[in-house]
Amino acid sequence: MAVSMTPAATERVRTFLTNRGKGIGLRLGVKTTGCSGLAYVLEFVDQLNDDDELFTIDDVNIIIDGKSLVHLDGIELDFIKEGLNEGFKFTNPNAKGECGCGESFNV
Amino acid sequence: MALLQIAEPGLSTVPHQHRLAAGIDLGTTNSLVASVKSGLAETLTDDEGKDILPSIVSYQENTIAVGNAAKAHSISDPQNTIVSVKRLIGRSLQDIESKYPALPYEFCGDENHPSLMTRQGEINPVQVSAEILSTLVERAKLSLGGDLEGVVITVPAYFDDAQRQSTKDAAKLAGVNVLRLLNEPTAAAVAYGLDSKQEGVIAVYDLGGGTFDISILRLSKGVFEVLATGGDSALGGDDFDIALVNHILAQANIARPLSASMERQVLQQACFAKEQLSNADKVSISLTLEDDSNFAGEISRATFDGLIKGLVAKTLRSCRRSIKDAGVSVDEICEVVMVGGSTRVPLVRSEVSNFFKRQALTSIDPDKVVAIGAAIQADVLAGNKPDNEMLLLDVIPLSLGLETMGGLVEKVISRNTTIPVAKAQEFTTFKDGQTAMAIHVLQGERELVEDCRSLARFELRGIPPMTAGAAHIRVTFKVDADGLLSVTAMEKSTGIESSIEVKPSFGLEEDDIITMLKDSMSNAKEDMAARMLKEQQVEAARVHEGVTAALAQDGARLLTSDELSAINIALENLLTTSQTSQITDIEKAIEQVDKITATFAERRMDSSIRTALAGHSVDEV
Questions:
Q1: Is the CB of B14 less than 8 angstroms away from the CB of A34?
Q2: Could you write out the three-class secondary structure of B138-180?
Q3: Catalytic site residues of B?
Q4: pLDDT value of residue A41
Q5: pLDDT band per the 50, 70, 90 thresholds, residue A1
Q6: Mutation target among B38, B45, B135, B144 for the A interface, most CBs of A within 10 A
Q7: For residue A7, what are the domain limits?
Q8: Helices B561-579 & B524-550, crossing angle to 10 degrees?
Q9: Residue in chain B lying closest to A103 (CA)
Q10: What's the pLDDT at B508?
Q11: Are A85 and B142 within 8 A, CB to CB?
Q12: Distance CA B233, CA B314 (A)
């Protein structure tokens, strides 16, 4: 199992967590919805669930539930700027297809 | 591809359905838009990286320029370039002309809905504001990567219904949904997270370029109540510049009048010096004089402080007055929030902190703090926060009511009631057979109609003819979350109703509101006396009306001519006395009529019972 973050993403996650003032880390996940079957979840975490696995990258906690993990092995999280818009972007080696928006995918 | 933001636990949205929302600070001089991304509220920048949009709209041959692009035209083409439209929105022509006599615009349209003549035709202030709003909304869409669920727009605490409604209309015209209008001082307090604290009194000190506002708020149970507002609509950072300009001119020995280029040069140096002196102890300035020689000078922080001390003291006097109006003491104020670029000046910070006896909050950029608070509120309203997050409520700044007989005001919703709210009160007819009722909606704290502000008038028609006092008319006042009022009147037996959305035609000056509030306190005694007099006069008119009607019906039949003339004399006396302002005399005159007509009333009663019973046997009764 391997999950990675670019330095830009790590720095932003750290900033957002500090600004929020609470929370133990960042949850990456997938849920079955969206135009291509699965959609990414990106949430703050206040408490761990039983099936959660915890990864630590540069002192930032990444939390992924067991079910999501199979879809997210090898994923890389980046923080990029496109024009005026900026935000997180997943690069997922498991995804076989993405919808045009990139918010949902299938494996 | 859309980029993702971090959501609160369990609040991830499904793809393509992000609840995007923004907060807009629609300012007099400058406007900003902000949004919460991954839990962090930030102002959004344009493609040049600037977040401040000057509130200027210029109507050119085929295009409409907004912001910096319009700024250049404000000097070369003032008639087609609208600056500070916020001063015009929701106001009558008379208001505008008396307050700002030197505006370069050509006004047209009617008295209550003035518009401006530009080369693109008639443009009203709502349209101008809409241009600014749509520029900011467009920026937010690009920046957030999708359509907006809605926006929160901030307005001054003293904005009345007309100004709020016009601001909402501008948003509608710009094609954006308004989640809420939020008071500017409230937004600033939200930005500092003061809404999550338990209770307390908060002062918001807002010193902008051209205006100064002080607001005293009380936070209790998630409700921000505006206790008092005050300030000076002609005092701000620009006055600091003017003081510096005069100082520089004196130092350089330059006499007025100045050439336009000299004026610009000196002003530029003054602005530069002011900004530098926020961090430096002294600053060098240099001027190229008319004869091409150079002037070099130096201004120290102490000199600058000396120049503006009087101006700062003036703001503190306003603070003192507002605290007094709010009925609190300085010690009760638990936080002081600084808003506006001019609060960067160190003397302002230290004097304000000294005055309130506590360190003023300055950690958020004072130019952005209002927009940031609006963005935080927009994020909550769009549903991006868990339910337990407190939703902020606002209050009605001035009581709402309607006119009753005798020019009195009956308050239906009192000042500082939290909104949204709906309240109903029952009224009745004054005359026999009255089939219509005029509803006059008023705003203000005083007892008499002439001292309050008229918001709207409408009529309820089709009331079935009944004796005076028999009809039940239910009047409902409803104020939505944005502070906008709708009034409905319904006659209960028939269910007929009539209503109005209050979209009043002219505005109140900020000073007027303050004056109205003050007057209501200082005139409380006189108002009460005036109210009692009016009530007695109304009562006198009612008695006169009733007796006259009865006389016309049964007078000749049931009274001797002596009795009849005695009653007529008493009625005549009642009529003349009720014109005077002697409350006790009117009371006596009413009593006298009551007494003298007692026998008449008995006989009428007997007669009507006899009529009712005529032809019936006792068993039937």
A1: yes
A2: HHHHHHHCCCCCEEEEEECCCCCHHHHHHHHHHHHHCCCCEEE
A3: 25, 86, 184, 206
A4: 86
A5: low
A6: B38
A7: 3-95
A8: 160
A9: B15
A10: 43
A11: yes
A12: 12
Highest mean pLDDT out of B169-173, B483-487, B534-538: B169-173
Determine, yes or no, domain membership for A46: yes
Please state whether the predicted TM-score (pTM) of the whole model is above 0.90. no
Opening angle at CA B391, ends B390 and B394, nearest 5 = 130
Residue A100: inside a domain, yes or no? Answer: no
DSSP assignment string, B55-117: SEEEE-SS-EEETHHHHTHHHH-GGGEEE-GGGTTT--HHHHHHH-TT---EEEEETTEEEEE
Q: Positive or negative, the Cα torsion across B232, B235, B237, B238? A: positive
Distance from CA of B139 to the nearest CA of A (A): 8
**Cβ contacts (< 8 Å) between A26 and chain B: which residues?**
6
Q: What is the model's pLDDT at position B505?
A: 36
Number of domains in chain A: 1
Q: Do A85 and B143 touch (CB under 8 A)?
A: yes
Residue A7 sits in a domain whose CATH number is 2.60.300.12
Which ipTM score applies to this complex? 0.82
- The 10s digit of each residue's pLDDT in B256-304 is 888 888 888 888 899 999 999 999 999 999 888 878 888 888 999 999 9
Mean pLDDT of chain B: 85
Q: State the best of B3, B20, B141 to mutate against chain A, taking most chain A CBs within 10 Å.
A: B3
Please state the rounded mean pLDDT for residues B440-451.
Answer: 84
User: If you measure CA to CA, which chain B residue comes closest to A37?
Assistant: B15
Residue A106 lies in a domain: no
Phi, psi (rounded to 5 degrees) for B509: -75, 150
CA distances from B319 to B259, B316, B324, B511, B598 (A): 39, 5, 9, 15, 61
Residues B547 and B604: their CA atoms lie apart, in Å, by 12
Q: Is residue A104 part of a domain?
A: no
Q: Note whether A84 contacts B142, CB cutoff 8 Å.
A: yes
Cβ neighbours of B11 in A, within 8 Å? 43
pLDDT score recorded for residue B616 = 66
Interchain CB contacts (distance < 8 Å): A and B: 94
Return the structure tokens found at B535.
Answer: 């009530």
Q: Which of B4, B45, B142 sits opposite A87 (nearest CB)?
A: B4
Which of B5, B12, B44 would best serve as a mutation to test chain A binding (most A beta carbons within 10 A)?
B12
Distances (CA, A) of B95 to B312, B393, B494: 28, 31, 42
> Which residues in chain A touch residue B3, judged by CB atoms under 8 angstroms apart?
80, 82, 85-89
